[in-house]
Amino acid sequence: MGNNSKSKKIIRLDLTGCKYLGEIHDRIKEAFGFPEWYGRNWDAFSDLLWSECDADKVEIFGESTLSEKFKHDIEIMHEILEDNKKEHNKYRWRPFDFEVIN
Q1: Does position 66 have pLDDT exceeding 60, yes or no?
Q2: 97 has which bridge partners?
């Protein structure tokens, strides 16, 4: 299984200027193409990342523009993305990665 150079699916999540946690989840729902019933919480994000996301990479923009009050939520989001990455690597599924671009 070599590294196939076909175009990779990249999700661009832009959190620039979000003022509310609900707004962050709205941007996640839109960027990931999650269904209408997305629960707008971290458990729902984790579940749908696992079951509904076929991206090779997630690029996150605008974290540096967020209020300090979202620090814990951003840490949770990173942890969920990191867990997803580890699971993909552990079971040798398709590659998955994420990057914070500020």
Answers
A1: yes
A2: 57
Helices 71-90 and 42-52: angle between axes, nearest 10 degrees: 30
Lowest mean pLDDT among 6-10, 11-15, 66-70, 73-77: 6-10
Instruction: List, in sequence order, every residue forming a beta bridge with 46; answer none if it has no partner.
Output: none
- The verdict on residue 65 lying in a domain is yes
Contacts of 100 (CB under 8 A, 6+ apart): 60, 63, 78
Please indicate, yes or no, if residue 5 is contained in any of the structural domains. no
pLDDT the model gives residue 2: 46
CA dist list (Å): 18 to 9, 46, 48, 65, 100: 25, 20, 21, 8, 16
Number of domains observed in the structure of the chain: 1
Q: Is residue 1 part of a domain?
A: no
